[in-house]
From TrEMBL:
It comes from Microbacterium kyungheense. InterPro entries: Alkaline_phosphatase_core_sf, Sulfatase, Sulfatase_CS, Sulfatase_N. GO terms for molecular function: hydrolase activity; metal ion binding. Keywords: Calcium, Hydrolase, Metal-binding. This is Arylsulfatase. CDD domains: PAS_like. PANTHER family: ARYLSULFATASE FAMILY MEMBER, BLL2667 PROTEIN. It comes from the Bacteria. Residues 33-456 form the Sulfatase N-terminal domain. Belongs to the sulfatase family.
Length: 774
């Protein structure tokens, strides 16, 4: 609310008295710390060196040695939901984030729209004298708004952040990222050949933002949310970092679990009597086959070699990113800011099982419901982690890096999905150094902690809207508490993709239900009971011994579900959830016209050719030597492109990056005006749901090449590599060209795409007429 003007206003300014009070910017409380939140992706607690893991994290080790390491800090088991709790301090369903943004649907807890009753930490700190920066992953913008012309209401700048530099989707290619700065999309500042990697770029930009702020407002504290692409797939890292781990994982994931548990016990991360849980704990009739772990001793020598290398790549990715973060920490120390900077260094959910039992050189297969192929993976072993792959390790490593718990990311009922690393560092405010804290906490508690430390409260009314109270509790009491002192947390529900559980006063109930199976029948779920205070790994089911306690917790889950908009539960497949039709700002249509000299169109709002027949027609005037991309959508890991090369028209459909590229090529082209296009006629579905049919390549009204083709029914990418006209952004669809291959040697008027049942030749005449009017 604006302060009242208390000056005096007369006809003449000389007789008036000014009052600047209502217009002065608020100042942060005296001595308020800077805040740096570092949020990795997809990282189990047993991965990193401070917890006994085999992955060296020099920066995190440094912060842990001078700060606090938490052993029972939890998340929602999935990225968008957890990140929403970091934004608002409310439970994920209250934020409308009961799923990732690509899986939202039309229910209050799953809408993908943060309500105005949940003001963000950025908005509150802006109103209290802070500069606010968000760098790296977002994944909290509604999918239909991830576009140049989409609403910016839930982009970072509208959510309380002065500056943003990063990517809006759930993942991105670390060599060719899909970048946005503030409210617009940008291209990466340089190329992989010139030394580009996203982790390095994000660290550079973070240092720049803080340095620029200090140059103009050195007394003003700042809040920075740093969210690298690591450790989400694709696992990309410089080869020198990958090679540091050569042979480090040759003993396999089963042996790693035994080894790391002993180290965790030795370091006091878990109690001495903590038991190791089975690698495949889900009953066969409930399990998701894609989450199965192959016992290491059943693998072939080739499989062992491949899987070990995939772990080496992941480790190199994690350490390389930590080293880049170290550059930020060094800058803060050199500039005298480190002591009074409150740092949270953590991860958003457990290790990822999205690589299937065999691992993957293209994680997008998981989202398309298409199996990985061992031979294809082995063929890429020498380039894993480089631009040639979109790789992910197998489920065995997800289990290993989530030791000693059951399962991994997506399984919200087990700590394998939710118990994550968390180190807090604040020399000016924490006297304890290098200590461990065992209090039970959750990602909803971070906002409450930050506000408590600064000495401000979440407003009861913000911008005229009554606010929902915070669901989290402050962790500040634990900074100088006894390591095993009681927690301030009383109850925390969990629910994700059909999985569910609840923790209350040291006990936990978990429903036995796997995500993304489509099993349904939630009323038939069997619940297990664990006394987490004495059984940290949740290995002993006490449901039969304590039926009353189990029922108490089941009742508590339903009570929390009612209060937090959790229902309905949804365990449908990834492909089903990712292809839900959502409201768009543009009216539904079957014909799209795109023009050159425009930014790539995000897949969320581009024409959807998946699982259907389609026609693409480019209207061009060719000169001698004309060449380049006319139309492209996707990347080498899934996409299609229409281009001219060596005076021939070519259409390539790159099906999930599986070689060879499906290529259709014309004879020689002549100068002049032409309609160049392709038609795909879908005949049916293949074994894994992929579209099967016939492609026909056209030059004007003549079919110049045709043949069988298969096409994806899932997304080309989870994010990035949008639809382009006149060039190919980011990572090229086809290996037959590079560097964007912009169209030259003539004039490209536009490209029409049609997904109706109309005949190609009828559409050709209509498209040419429409483009001619432009």
């Amino acid at each position: 609310m604006t302060a009242e003007f208390n000056g005096t206003i007369k006809l003449d300014v000389r007789d008036s008295v000014a009052d600047w009070g209502p217009y002065e910017r608020p100042k942060a409380p005296e001595g308020a710390p800077n805040v740096l939140v570092i949020l990795y992706d997809d990282t189990g607690m047993a991965s990193w060196s401070p917890y006994g893991g085999r992955i060296n994290m020099p920066t995190l080790d440094r912060l842990a040695a001078n700060g606090l390491t938490y052993t029972q800090w939890h998340t929602t088991a999935l990225c968008s939901p957890t990140r929403s709790t970091f934004l608002t301090g409310r439970n994920h369903h209250v934020n409308g984030m009961g799923n990732i943004m690509e899986g939202t649907n039309g229910f209050p807890g799953l809408s993908g729209h943060i309500p105005e009753s949940c003001a963000t930490i950025g908005q509150v700190l802006q109103k209290n004298g802070y500069s606010t920066f968000w760098v790296g992953k977002n994944h909290n913008v509604p999918e239909e708004d991830v576009s140049t012309g989409g609403s910016k209401e839930q982009w970072p700048l509208a959510m309380g952040f002065d500056r943003f530099y990063g990517f809006l989707g759930g993942e991105t290619n670390n060599w060719y990222p899909d970048l946005a700065e503030d409210n617009h999309f940008i291209e990466p500042p340089y190329t992989p050949e010139e030394g580009y990697h996203l982790s390095k770029d994000l660290a550079d930009q973070t240092i720049r933002l803080i340095r620029d702020q200090n140059a103009s407002n050195p007394s003003k504290p700042w809040y920075t949310w740093f969210c690298p692409g690591a450790n989400h797939a694709p696992h990309h890292a410089p080869k020198e970092y990958i090679d540091r781990y050569k042979g480090a994982f040759d003993d396999g994931y089963d042996a790693y679990r035994e080894w790391v548990l002993a180290r965790m016990i030795e370091r006091g991360i878990v109690p001495a009597d903590t038991a190791l849980t089975p690698i495949n704990p889900m009953p066969e009739d409930h399990a998701n086959a894609a989450d199965y772990v192959k016992p290491w001793d059943t693998l072939s020598d080739d499989e062992k070699r491949l899987f070990a290398r995939m772990a080496e790549v992941f480790a190199g990715f994690s350490e390389y990113t930590d080293v880049q973060i170290g550059r930020i920490i060094d800058y803060l120390e050199d500039s005298g800011q480190l002591d009074n900077t409150l740092i949270f260094y953590c991860a958003d959910n457990g290790a990822s099982g999205e690589g299937s039992p065999d691992g993957s050189v293209n994680e997008n297969k998981f989202f398309n419901g298409f199996p990985d192929d061992l031979k294809e993976n082995l063929d890429k072993i020498g380039v894993l982690g480089g631009p040639e792959t979109y790789n992910h390790y197998p489920t065995g490593w997800a289990t290993a890096f989530s030791t000693p718990f059951q399962m991994f990311k997506r399984y919200s009922q087990f700590s394998g999905g939710t118990c994550d690393p968390m180190v807090i560092h604040w020399p000016a405010g924490i006297t304890a150094k290098g200590e461990i804290r065992h209090q039970y906490h959750h990602s909803t508690d971070i906002v409450a902690t930050i506000l408590d430390v600064i000495g401000i409260e979440m407003p009861s009314v913000f911008r005229g809207v009554e606010q929902r109270p915070l669901d989290g509790v402050s962790m500040k009491y634990s900074f100088d508490a006894e390591p095993d002192g009681p927690t301030a947390k009383k109850v925390q529900y969990y629910a994700m993709l059909g999985t569910r559980g609840v923790w209350k006063d040291g006990w936990k109930a978990a429903a036995i239900h796997a995500p993304l199976t489509g099993h349904g029948r939630f009323d038939e779920d069997r619940w297990e009971l664990y006394h987490v205070d004495v059984d940290r790994s949740e290995s002993k089911d006490l449901a039969a011994e304590h039926p009353e306690k189990l029922q108490e917790l089941i009742d508590a889950w339903f009570e929390e579900a009612e209060k937090n908009n959790v229902l309905p539960l949804d365990d449908r497949s990834a492909r089903d959830q990712l292809t839900i039709e959502r409201p768009q700002s543009e009216p539904a249509r079957t014909r799209y016209i795109y023009y050159p000299d425009t930014t790539a169109v995000a897949e969320s709002v581009a024409v959807n050719v998946r699982g259907r027949s389609y026609k693409i027609i480019a209207d061009v005037i060719l000169e001698e030597g004309a060449e380049g991309v006319l139309f492209a959508h996707g990347s080498r890991f899934g996409g299609h492109a229409l281009f001219i090369k060596d005076n021939t028209l070519n259409y390539v459909y790159n099906f999930l990056g599986i070689p060879p590229e499906q290529t259709f090529t014309s004879g020689g082209l002549t100068p002049g005006k032409h309609a160049l296009g392709v038609e795909f006629i879908r005949d049916g579905a293949g074994e894994h749901g992929e579209s099967l049919g016939t492609a026909k390549l056209y030059v004007d009204d003549q079919v110049v090449a045709e043949g069988p083709m298969r096409a994806q029914v899932g997304k080309f990418t989870l994010a990035g590599d949008g639809l382009c006209v006149g060039f190919d952004s980011g990572d090229s669809v086809s290996g037959q060209y590079s560097g964007g291959f912009p169209f030259t040697g003539g004039k490209l008027l536009g490209v029409g795409v049609d997904v109706s049942e109309e005949q190609y030749l009828d559409l050709e005449l209509e498209a040419l007429a429409a483009l001619a009017r432009e």
